[in-house]
Amino acid sequence: MLSLSQSLSYYKRKDIQELLLKYSKEKEIAVRYNNFFGKRPDTLTYPNDILECAKKGATSFHCSEELWTNPLQLNPNMRKNEMDELRKGWDLILDIDCPYWKFSKLATYVFIKALKEHGIESVTVKFSGSKGFHIAVPFEAFPEKKYYINGNYYYVKDLFPEAPRRIAEYLVNYVNKHLIKISDDTIFFGKISIPISKLLSETKTSKDEAILLKCNNCDNIVNKSQEEKFQYICSNCETVIEDRDVSFMLCPKCKKIMKKYPLNRQLCSCGSNSVRSEFDLSKIVAVDTVLISSRHLYRMPYSLHEKTGLVSVPFDIKRILKFEKNEAIPSKVKPYPFLERELCKKGEADILFQKAFDFSSEKNIQSVKKAENKPLFFDDKSQAISEEHFPPCIKKISLGLEDGKKRALLVLINFLYSCNWTYEMIEEYIMKWNERNKPDKLRETYIKGQLRYHKMQKEKMLPPNCNNKGYMIDTQFCNPDEFCKKIKNPVQYSKKKVWLLNQNSGKKKRVKNKEVKKT
Fold it and tell me: How many Å apart are CA 515 and CA 209, to the nearest integer?
């Protein structure tokens, strides 16, 4: 934790006060005092405001991604249309969070490269103050006024958080598909090459988890057990071997080169045999932007970080691979541009915006098709699944947490809704859970705001998959039992358990009926 003398000596600097004021314009501000936040909404108007907060023990300053006409009019009970009237716009902030410093920089590097490849020049970046980075694109880069989506026109300023979320999802897919390449035993992040074995050992990830096999035709994940194999036949002793594609195969009996024949086995359900290896970046990096909500905050440029004592400092995007944490020591901090609106070319992010919404629409169509062909886990879809059938991770979260409470809240809301709980049941459950959180609880207004936002969404999300490092593993929510080996998502765990119970109870009833008939 930061001491009062450390934070005060930093925030009383005139240059820091001016920089914080510059980035607080038209933004909602929240002041943090080590373990808790001050009142919301708040604003910064004068340099003395920062100094007074520092004297009261302020350790960091956080601002909204959204731009407001009057941030002080915000309140947690506002309806969506009221917030839309108050909102002027929003900045795209890609929050790259990775516990592995080297790969945090590599991930940020490829995301910046992806934005550049979409024609965006007004990209800036800053160190988060701990282990990640914030990549920023100003609102002025996006389409002006109205945008045509699915037969309707929308004001771009009102497409928050939907637009940043769709852009983040699209960029994750784009980076995985186009900027991270696998060649033999080497993985390329753009032009930077790293041995796969080194990546797996440093991130403690298995090859099967990190590297997916994807169909080139439909982009679906292909079961690795169905990977294309070849038949090798020895013309001398007629020994037959099935194996993967290799340049040549020696017969184990007579040591002669065997003839190679393709098995022509269908790999993907779409009928294609063309596949590629693709690295799943989500196994080591969490892009928090994917799960943002309205009034979402991020650490302001030139703000301190409570745990590390380092500054969330902007720097040249060309230096991303060379940046080191010692450059964020308060005494070494120098001004560098971040979110430069005046230099932004208006509408330069039009192509990215269009592709992100096209990608999202196509993704929804595919998910609907999959859902139509997917069998239900149990017959009564309206029945709420009881707590006794919850997976270990949800039960662990439910006991109360010290860290990761905001991420856990998103997991709980999406999980309970997917298990057919009503919003009244969800709110009651979460309020009781929040009472068990230590040392400090989430504010009631924050919880209700998240629930209200979830209600407004037409597309409901599942909680993160069990192998998601940023949301289940690194937060230590994951606490697997034997049944967990058979599932990929916490919701699947509960539904499958209920289905199995239904099957067993059905068998017992049939046995009893037979016994009755016999007697």
Answer: 49
pTM of the shown model: 0.69
**513: which 2 tokens?**
């009926």
503 contacts 511 by C-beta, under 8 angstroms: no
Find the largest Cα–Cα distance for the chain.
93
Q: What's residue 382's pLDDT?
A: 52
Q: Which two tokens stand for residue 95?
A: 């929050």
Laid out side by side, the sheet with 36-37 consists of 36-37, 29-33, 60-64, 297-299
Check if CATH label 3.90.920.10 holds for domain 4-178+285-358. yes
Other Cβ atoms less than 10 A from the Cβ of 124: the count is: 22
Check residue 20 and give its pLDDT.
Answer: 97
92 burial level (CB within 10 Å; 0-12, 13-18, 19+): buried
| Parts of the chain with a pLDDT under 50 | 365, 367-381, 508-509, 511, 516-519
Place of tokens 């597309």: 459
Task: Delimit the domains of the chain by residue range.
Answer: 4-178+285-358, 380-502
Residue 495's contacts (CB-CB under 8 Å, 6 or more residues apart) are: 377, 378, 385, 419
Q: Rounded to an integer, what distance in angstroms lies between the CA atom of residue 472 and that of residue 309?
A: 27
Q: Give me the pLDDT at residue 479, please.
A: 75
Q: Is the dihedral of CA 286, 292, 296, 301 positive or negative?
A: positive
448-479 burial code (b ≥16 CB/10 A, e <16): ebbbbbbeeeeeeeebbebbbbbbbbbbebbe
Helix axes 162-174 and 101-117, enclosed angle (nearest 10)? 100
